[in-house]
């Protein structure tokens, strides 16, 4: 379908050049399958430019995020190495249209996870867990979108920062966390906000990725989704996350 290729080109170019675009499906007429086809084709363009696939991000896995964006279906997107921001490092504001940051927890896998798995099976495939910050940046004007829009736009995925990798055998079901900007706490929450247990997000990632024909691979990172609402980030700010028991991470928005 040429529409799919055309929307993929539009959204990939918008992301590449940090330029906002009109919503592609403001009336929500596109099927979710087609929206994911646009996402896949858009990421394929990044891979053709030499980026490497490194994992999956989950979206709308907490009530705080659903309420903030007015959508309630769990979505997912594809992560590439080009989206990685070094822990404690700097990312340039010019790479984004209107970035926001949100506190998450990340998994890295030591085994593939294919299809329907239990939480126990999912945990057995986890090499480590880490506190993480996602930088989301919708390519749509005013950060406004329908469900097909945001899926096509790779679930607003733009950057991710990962803190220290920790033993996954500690209990990470309900860890307190704070997100700070320039040292001022702006969001307080818990990993329990993520589907009541972040492992549920990994289980969903395994199911959805396999259904798309791209099962989770050993070495991939899975971002579990924002535990709180996201915060706007301005140039010059330092954004940091502290998570009970796991430590923290941060980045400069240059
Ligand atoms: C969509 C992405 C949602 C999350 O963690 O819930 C997401 C958005 O809010 O723009 O990344
Ligand atoms: Mg997120």
Automatic annotation (TrEMBL):
InterPro entries: Fumarylacetoacetase-like_C, Fumarylacetoacetase_C_sf, Hydratase-Decarb/MhpD_sf. It comes from Ramlibacter rhizophilus. GO terms for molecular function: 2-oxopent-4-enoate hydratase activity. SUPFAM superfamilies: FAH (SSF56529). Keywords: Lyase. Residues 99-249 form the Fumarylacetoacetase-like C-terminal domain. The keyword Lyase applies. One of its GO terms (cellular component) is cytoplasm. Signal peptide: none annotated. This is 4-oxalocrotonate decarboxylase. The keyword Transmembrane helix does not apply.
């Amino acid at each position: 379908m040429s529409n799919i290729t055309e929307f993929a080109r539009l959204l990939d170019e918008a992301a590449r050049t940090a330029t906002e675009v009109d919503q592609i499906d403001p009336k929500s007429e596109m099927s979710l399958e087609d929206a994911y086809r646009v996402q896949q084709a858009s990421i394929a363009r990044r891979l053709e430019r030499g980026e490497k696939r490194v994992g999956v991000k989950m979206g709308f896995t907490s009530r705080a995020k659903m309420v903030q964006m007015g959508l309630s279906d769990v979505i997912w997107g594809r992560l590439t190495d080009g989206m990685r921001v070094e822990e404690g490092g700097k990312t340039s504001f010019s790479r984004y249209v209107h970035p926001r940051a949100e506190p998450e927890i990340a998994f890295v896998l030591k085994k593939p996870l294919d299809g329907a798995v239990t939480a126990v099976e999912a945990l057995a495939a986890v090499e480590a867990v880490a506190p993480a910050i996602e930088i989301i940046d919708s390519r749509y004007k005013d950060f406004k979108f329908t469900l097909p829009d945001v899926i096509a736009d790779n679930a607003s995925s733009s950057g991710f920062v990962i803190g220290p990798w920790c033993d996954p055998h500690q209990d990470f079901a309900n860890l307190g966390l704070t997100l700070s900007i320039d040292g001022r706490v702006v969001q307080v929450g818990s990993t329990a906000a993520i589907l009541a247990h972040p492992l549920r997000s990994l289980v969903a990632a395994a199911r959805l990725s396999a259904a798309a024909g791209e099962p989770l691979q050993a070495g991939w990172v899975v971002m579990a989704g924002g535990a709180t609402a996201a915060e706007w980030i301005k140039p010059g700010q330092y954004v940091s996350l502290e998570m009970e028991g796991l430590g923290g991470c941060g980045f400069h928005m240059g």
